[in-house]
Amino acid sequence: MTMSQAQRGWLERLGAKVLGGFRYVGGMSLMLGDTLRWTVLGLVSPRVRLGRRAIAEQLVRVGVRSLGIVVLVQLFIGVILALQMTPPLRDPWRQEAMIPNIIGEAGFRMLGPILTAVVITGFAGASIAAEIGTMVVAEEIEAMEAIALNPVRFLVVPRFWATFLAMILLSVVADLCIALGGHITALLVLGPTVYEGYWTRMQRQLDMLDFTTGLIQAGVFGTLISLIACYEGLKVRGGAEGVGRATTMTVVYSIVAIIIAACVFTVVFYVYKL
């Protein structure tokens, strides 16, 4: 094989991957449009029910049942941050009193939403993809369409809004748990230099913008997780193997999308000094 043939084959594979990426994003965009359309119709049209009970059931499944693991993870993150930052701030700068400021800024703006999104991806995103994928394999989706029931309206809309709301609410809990984990560590390990005035210094460091930017990110992460999970579930092919593939790719794609979105937010915050 000549070099030109090898390069042409490489470019063809690269082009196929790029086109596949555009097709994937386009498919999710169309599903998001359908989701928002059915939501608006459910709010303004008396002939279309929004399915509030289904949203509440999914909110319990996605949010309430993952509360314990989110609290546990974020408490340990607060402990880790406090212990990891103490040596470089203490020697030789003697600035360990700034630990509450750093934990508050990092936790509320970025770490709380990101780590909560990762937990939700593994806890709920994979489950959503597997559930919808199993329905596809069992031909339940075709049965719904045969009796004029739209899968997006009855399957995607409740999971979309439940994941969106759960991410925002859990991020609030995550922020508090990170701060609490740091405070417990300061109280038990780091000494009075850190724990005295801990909450006062954190409160002075934070403002409403820090809190709201974290919640905005949480909402975007929840949107990405729900769209990827539902999209992967609806395009399952190949029986049980396809369901397993959809579950795996949901976790992979969701985490990659979360990190990319967080990077974009960070660049925007830096450029506009938010």
Largest sheet: none
Taken from the alpha-carbon principal axes, the silhouette is: globular
How many runs of DSSP E, i.e. beta strands?
Answer: 0
Helix run count = 10
The assigned structural class equals mainly alpha
Tally of individual domains: 1
Radius of gyration from CA coordinates: 22 Å
| Chain-averaged pLDDT | 91
The amount of beta strand, in percent, is: under 5%
Q: What ranges have pLDDT less than 50 throughout 5 or more consecutive residues?
A: none
- Helix coverage percent: over 70%
Order of helices and strands: HHHHHHHHHH
Could you give the distance between the termini? 54 Å
What does this protein structure show overall?
It is a single chain. The chain has 274 residues and is mainly α. The chain is built from 10 helices and no strands. The longest helix has 42 residues, at 3-44. The mean pLDDT is 91.
